[in-house]
Structure formats: structure tokens, C-alpha cells
Amino acid sequence: MSDVGTYLYAVALAEDPAPSEGLTGVTGGPVRAISHAGLVAYVSAVPLTEFGEEPLRRSLEDMDWLGETARAHHRVVEAVAAKAPTAPVRLVTVYRDDAQIRSLLEQRHDDFVDVLSRIAGRQEWGVKVYAAPSEAPQPEEPAAPSSPGTAYLKKRQASLHTREEAWRQAVARAEQIHDVLGSVAVASHRHRAQDPQLSGREEWMVLNGAYLVDEERGGEFGQVVEGLRGEGIEVELTGPWAPYSFTTAVETGESEARDDGP
Amino acid sequence: MTDLEPRGAELAREGRLPSERVALVDLLDRLLAGGVVVSGDLVLSIADIDLVRISVRALVMSVRESDTIVGARRDE
């Protein structure tokens, strides 16, 4: 057995155009195409000293490593998706050898073809909606020592109430936005709200949506997003993305549909 | 103390992560919760998202702590 694994990035139809030459993968090594059963898998060799289970556990704690790996993975997916309908594979999926990849393409052939035909001619857009915590009700300003405790508590209660109400409204607005966007999209998916520490935003993220949109309706989708901007909320559009959020249906092993939107 | 209030708020506002990292967050949403999930004979896959989520969270906490330290030094 070797200490080299095969890292899988994406799967496409073998008949579709290939990405340009010279692609490099997660460790800087060349990306290769493995064609089998009418499908093509884009892979690169990775050392198991870095991509084995134990080293990986440590690496995943390292934001720099995670960032570099994610970006390298994304670069390959983007290059493939620029030319052909593409099913991106989840980050860090490593096989023992090429033979295993060929057997994957064979065994899951129909699932891959289904998914690829569903996302063909479509793009994923991301829409995040933030709500400003209602005019920041004075975060515990150091009360003058003379001010009575009850007044302080009342003020605090009132401010909590305002925040709750603002939150409820923002959530309702997000639902409405998700529905409107969903009506232009062929499929939608809600990701979990991002951790404020990761997003770097203090506002509440009330929607972290992904929308699969026909390519020719991309402009229309953008306009709908523009039209949603309004008081109290901020709308952020990202993309177009390769259809990351709409290819999870090809699951081998037990399937586990999670955080699916309504 | 009163002088510090607005400055603290300002720092907090500017304290957002660089845009490169903001985009990484969006990427991680997709790379860790999206994409084709395969399991079986492979050597490894992040089927266990929770492991990653926990790790990332722990990491962010550590990033944040070091930020605080930098801020504190500036105040000295």
C-alpha cells in the first residue's frame, strides 16, 4: 500500500469540455481527469501524511490550512464548472487509489447523471440577509450610581422587549425574502446562519440562503435581490457559485438530509 | 472611561475580519455542508461535519482572544 491518496474535487460528464490544462490542486500537485462510465472525476494525488485521519484532525484546527485547502479545492471546482455542468464534492474526500474512483463513477453513475442534468444550465447564488439589532438599545450604559435599580431593570426589560420584537420582524421578513427568491429559483436551500465571529458582522444574520437559478434568469434574480433592500435590513448577494448547495443528493452510504429549507 | 466608549464601539465595528476571510466563510458553508458526500471505502471524508464545526469555532475563539490581546496592548 502506498502513502499517497487520491483527492476528489468534482465530477462531470465525460462528453463535456474539460477545464484548461495546468490546474493544480490542494497540495500544489497537478489535477488529473479519470474518465470512466461516461463520467469524469477530477483528482490529484495527496500525501496521507497530510491527509490521513490523524494529521487532518490537527490540520482542521488550523484556519490557515483550512483556508488554503478550501480555496485550492474551490479553484479546481470553479475551473471545471466554467466549462461544464459540475457536481462539486465535499471538502477533503480522499480515496485510496484511482481504482476506487472508477468504481464510484460506475456504482453511482445514475445518481451523478441525475444531479448533473438537474444543475445543467443553472447557477447557484447566495443571499445573506442581516438585520441591524434595532437601533442598539444602549448596551448597559454605566448607570449613574444614584439611579434606582428598578428604573434600570425597567429600561432593560423594555430594551429586551424591543429586541425580541425586532428579531421576530426580521425573521418574518427573512421568510418572506426566501419565498420571493425561491419563486425565481428552481431550487433553494437554507444554510445555517453564520457565526458572527466568522462572518465578522455584528448584525443578526436572519437568512443564509442558496438559490439554484437558470442562467438566463440570473439578471432577473439580481434585480429581485436589489428590490428587496430596505429599511432595517441589509441584503448581500454572492455568486454565481458552482452548485455546491444542490449536489448533496448524490450520497453513497446512509443519506442524511439536513437543514433543508421549506 | 467615557472617552473609551465611542472608540471601543468604533474598534468593534472595524474589527470585522478582512474581506478575504468573509468570503472564506461563504466558501466553508458550501464546502463543509454542500457538495457530493461520499463514504464507504474511501480513506477519509468530512462526513462528520460537527467535528469541523467545533474545530472552526474553537479556532475562531482563539483568533478572537489574540485580537483582544492586541487591543489591550494598544490601550496600555
From TrEMBL, chain A:
NADP: is it a keyword of this entry?
Answer: no
Q: Which InterPro entries match?
A: GvpL/GvpF
Using the UniProt annotation, give all residue ranges assigned to the region (Disordered): 133-157
Alphabetized Pfam families for the sequence: GvpL_GvpF
Q: Does the keyword Zinc apply?
A: no
- The protein's superkingdom reads Bacteria
Q: Where in the cell is it found?
A: Gas vesicle
Sorted keywords for this record are:
Gas vesicle
Gene Ontology CC entries for this record:
gas vesicle
GO process annotations (BP): gas vesicle organization
Principal location class: other
Which intervals carry biased composition (Low complexity)?
A: 133-148
Family as reported in the entry's similarity comment: Belongs to the gas vesicle GvpF/GvpL family.
Question: What name has this protein been given in UniProt?
Answer: GvpL/GvpF family gas vesicle protein
Automatic annotation (TrEMBL), chain B:
Membrane-crossing segments per the record: none
A Pfam family of this chain: Gas_vesicle
Q: Where in the cell is it found?
A: Gas vesicle
Please give the GO cellular component terms listed in this UniProt entry: gas vesicle; vesicle membrane
First-listed, main subcellular location of the protein, grouped into a coarse class: other
Q: Does the keyword Glycoprotein apply?
A: no
Q: Which GO terms describe its molecular function?
A: structural molecule activity
Keywords in alphabetical order: Gas vesicle
Secreted: present as a keyword of the record? no
Q: What family does the database annotate?
A: Belongs to the gas vesicle GvpA family.
The protein's name:
Gas vesicle protein
What organism does the UniProt record list as the source?
Nonomuraea turkmeniaca
